Amino acid sequence: MTALRTKALAAVVALAAAVSLAACGTTDEASSSSSSSDSSSSSSGSTSDLQKFDVSGIKKNEKIAAMLPDSITKDGILLNGADTTYAPDAFIDADGKTPVGYDIDLTKALAAVFGLKPKVVTSTLDTIIPSVGSKYDLGISALTVSKEREEAVDFVTYFQAGMTYAVQKGNPKKVDLSNLCGVKVAVQTGSTEEVDINAKAKECEKAGKAKMEVLSYDQQTDVTTAVVSGKAAVFYADTPVTNYAIKQTGDELQTLGKDVDVTPQAIAVKKGDTQTAQAVKLALEELIKDGTYDRIMQKWGIESGAIDKPVINPSVE
Fold first, then answer.
1. pTM for the whole thing?
2. Do residues 231 and 173 touch, judged by C-beta distance below 8 A?
3. 8, 164, 108, 58: CA torsion to nearest 10
4. Does the pLDDT value for residue 264 go beyond 70?
């Protein structure tokens, strides 16, 4: 292992450790972190630039806020369930406790429109959708829209992203995307990519080819580490996540092939709660109109995935 690779792996492992510290609780209360203050500071008293997102200029929209049911507004908190291992969408800041990312900034902005205090609760990706409407008011966590998911929740689009493969720099394991049979592929549990890769693995099996080994991890940091360390040959994740992982590992990784299946990402709302879905849509339109949405996109360098208008339950294949 080269010195650069050792350094890159150490960075990923350190990030994973910070995430584990933040998400080790077994209850929502133990694993939750408030993101209500733009001046949040770490235990050392310093403030991370990532934590800073000023929503003081966003005024409550009384008409939109009135659309929300009492089940959401009665405690004065907008509770979002998010996978906080999925940088730059949502992850834990250097203080080891504060959620940051573009999904977190959007949660703050929406809460401001609703006149509520934002709170983000760390959750694993596969448990967010089943918990929307019971544990969580909303699910804002890079959720790709699919027909299967739309059967469980209603969606309001806010971003669009493709899916991208990443390998070690130089592709030393000679991964060929046209034939992944016999290859170890890392993905995150509960992700759209996991579903896609498992389907490809079954195709290898049916064709009598070498078995594809799918390595599923609860945390994206572990997915990245698997490839950096050589345990897996390639990982598959949303394009913004892949690009961020490459930067965070000192360019020890590279993308492989083109972005595929560019599809909407959306905010999950309790199935059948049309009032909340409409309120979220209108709030997003307000944030797009006043420039807040663009500021969030620019802050995280993800302008290419920005949308012009949110849609409720878009048609997907």
1. 0.74
2. no
3. 120
4. yes
